Amino acid sequence: MIFHVTLEQAEDGWVVVECPALPGCVSEGRDEKEALDNIREAITVWLWAEDQKAIDIFTSSHVLKNTTKHEKVNCRGGVTPPLRGLFI
């Protein structure tokens, strides 16, 4: 994946780098190379955290687990599609 980032020189001499596509994904470094290395790690962690949020939504107690019959669950947007089987 390719993410665009912005680099800015802070008043204290550090380089601040941000990934505008990922809200709150910001890092810094003593120089441009270190800042870019740090934002790569920050992007990886940001994506992992978002993935964990999605997993938590689908494994929480209000979502069906191990169903074998047709049932409905409230989803975003008020849609209630039928689900069958194990939903992960």
For the residues shown, what is the average pLDDT? 76
Query: Could you give the distance between the termini?
Result: 25 Å
Secondary-structure-based class equals alpha+beta
CA radius of gyration is: 20 Å
Share of helical residues:
25-40%
Produce a short descriptive summary.
This protein has 88 residues and is α+β, with helices and mostly antiparallel strands. The chain contains one helix and five strands.
Commentary on this structure:
The model is unreliable at 67-88 (pLDDT under 50). This protein has 1 helix and 5 strands. By secondary structure, the protein is of the alpha+beta class. 32% of the residues lie in helices and 25% in strands. The two termini are 25 Å apart. The radius of gyration is 20 Å and the shape is elongated. The strands form 2 sheets. It has a 3-stranded antiparallel beta sheet, with helices on one face. A two-stranded antiparallel sheet has the order 4-5.
Features of the shown structure:
5 strands; 88 residues; alpha+beta; 32% helix; three-stranded antiparallel beta sheet; disordered C terminus
Write the layout of secondary structure elements.
Layout: E1 6-9, E2 15-18, E3 26-29, H1 32-59, E4 67-72, E5 82-85
Antiparallel strand pairs: 1-2, 2-3, 4-5
